[in-house]
Write a structure and sequence with these properties.
Oligomer: single chain
Number of helices: 15
CATH superfamily of the largest domain: Type I PLP-dependent aspartate aminotransferase-like (Major domain)
Strand content: 15-25%
Bound molecules: pyridoxal-5'-phosphate
CATH class of the largest domain: Alpha Beta
Number of domains: 2
Order of helices and strands: HEEEHHHEHEHEHEHEHEEHHHHEHEEEH
CATH architecture of the largest domain: 3-Layer(aba) Sandwich
Largest sheet: 7 strands, mixed
Number of strands: 14
Radius of gyration: 23 Å
CATH topology of the largest domain: Aspartate Aminotransferase, domain 2
Helix content: 40-55%
Shape: globular
């Protein structure tokens, strides 16, 4: 294996720079908002499961899913359980499928997908919706479909890695504008060839900062310069909007955005993602998004779970209120204690430590004290801004958060962070 020694060299270099990464394991604990990690229970301040939705796969849920599956199969004419097709043993009479078995464009299009897409498009206030395998797949598929070799992509410098990768994959010329800096974006748009097709893309909530994109200004700029605008609502879906539609919905900007993207992996507590927007755009993506065309469809069983979570999200507004209230409290207390929480203004609260090594020590001391909160280091965040990313949940108990705050403050003092 001598010819693989270059990997050892690179791993050693990462370790020396405090940038080595490793997989971790954790299981759900019984207590709300806690997990079991390395054999002990810890308060979970590290997940994207913002609303604290839990999904117990029990008899009730399965029979509810099967009833719903019967209904949509009957509506779509693909044969319900107990129908003649089912009795004769023909395909279509089986209960909910776990795997989709193929791409949506082959035979992986279980009726639940189309049925949920129609419901979800109406909820988002868009004409159409398209479900992807994951947020990462959605971003690389959408961006590389909407932009090509001769086009221009304008991407916020703090956008998620999947947007960065989508832009690279598109082979378009990529301009990265300074985070949320609309003057910089406008300069770049003004200088760009007016004849070229342009795509502006932004996260709506920046995942490592908890800062919010200036969507109104972005919409005005994209209209002024004839660009398309794509908004990634991964961290705002379920959290913003009257029924959790996301930030664009909350600001009344839905119709002025060309493509909305969001995941079912964060506040939804499931997996999978969507693009939504005008029917023309969605039809284009069906024809051009390679991560949709050349990949197996999301398991139908998961779509039933997503739909259940979505029903909770749109009806239980108290979860949004509780989440934002708890995050406000935590951020306010951390700031008063002297921590730098950057530009956070919502439910993601970073504690900026600066140095990689110190962030690792901070993270392991938190773990020792029973708090799961992960150090985030470059290249995920800019050099010199390593941080502990804290994410409270709607269902965290106030006394648990108070306990976490006391521990964070005492470690911050010990390490000289505050
Ligand atoms: C802004 C943003 N977009 C997309 C993704 C990818 O989503 P998924 O985890 O569903 O692949 C993430 C995940 O971290 C994200 O933070």
């Amino acid at each position: 294996m001598d010819h693989l020694q270059w990997m050892r060299g690179e791993l050693d270099r990462l370790a020396a720079a405090g940038q080595a990464r490793a997989l971790t394991e954790s299981a759900r604990a019984r207590r709300e908002g806690w997990i079991i990690r390395n054999g002990r229970s810890m308060l979970n301040l590290a997940s994207n499961h913002y609303l604290g939705l839990h999904h117990e796969v029990n008899e009730d849920v399965m029979s509810r899913w099967n009833d719903y599956a019967d209904r949509i199969r009957a509506e779509s004419g693909s044969g319900a359980v107990g129908s003649e097709a089912g009795k004769s043993g023909e395909p279509g009479g089986s209960p909910i499928r776990t795997g989709a078995t193929a791409s949506r464009l082959i035979v992986g299009g279980d009726p639940i997908l189309g049925s949920f897409e129609r419901e979800f498009a109406a909820y988002k206030g868009t004409e159409a919706c398209l479900i992807f395998g994951s947020g990462y797949m959605a971003n690389i598929g959408i961006i590389s479909a909407l932009a090509g070799r001769n086009d221009l992509v304008f991407s916020d410098k703090y956008n998620h890695a999947s947007i960065v990768d989508g832009a690279i994959l598109s082979r378009a010329k990529v301009f990265r504008y300074r985070n949320r800096d609309m003057n910089h974006l406008e300069q770049l748009l003004r200088k760009a060839d007016p004849a070229k097709r342009k795509l502006v893309v932004t996260d709506s909530v920046f995942s490592m900062d908890g800062s919010i994109a200036p969507l109104r200004e972005l919409v005005e700029l994209k209209e002024r310069y004839g660009a398309m605008l794509m908004v990634d609502e991964a961290h705002s879906g379920g959290v913003f909007g009257l029924r959790g539609e996301g930030l664009a919905g909350e600001l009344g900007l839905t119709q002025r955005i060309d493509v909305h993207m969001g995941t079912f992996s964060k506040a939804y507590g499931c997996y999978g993602a969507y693009a939504s927007g005008p029917a023309l755009v969605i039809d284009y993506l069906i024809n051009k998004a390679r991560s949709l065309i050349y990949s197996t469809a999301l398991p139908p069983m998961l779509v039933y779970a997503i739909r259940d979570q979505w029903n909770i999200i749109r009806t239980e507004g108290w979860r949004r209120d509780a989440l934002l209230r708890k995050a406000d409290w935590l951020r306010g207390e951390l700031r008063s204690a002297g921590f730098d929480t950057g530009d956070s203004e919502c439910h993601i609260v970073p504690v900026i430590v600066g140095d990689n090594e110190r962030s690792l020590v901070f993270g392991s001391k938190l773990q020792e004290a029973g708090i799961a909160a992960v150090p985030i280091r470059p290249p995920t965040v800019p050099e010199g801004s390593a941080r502990i990313r804290l994410t409270p949940m709607a269902t965290h108990r106030d006394d648990d958060l108070r306990m976490a705050l006391d521990i964070i403050v005492s470690i911050g003092l010990e390490l000289g962070v505050i």
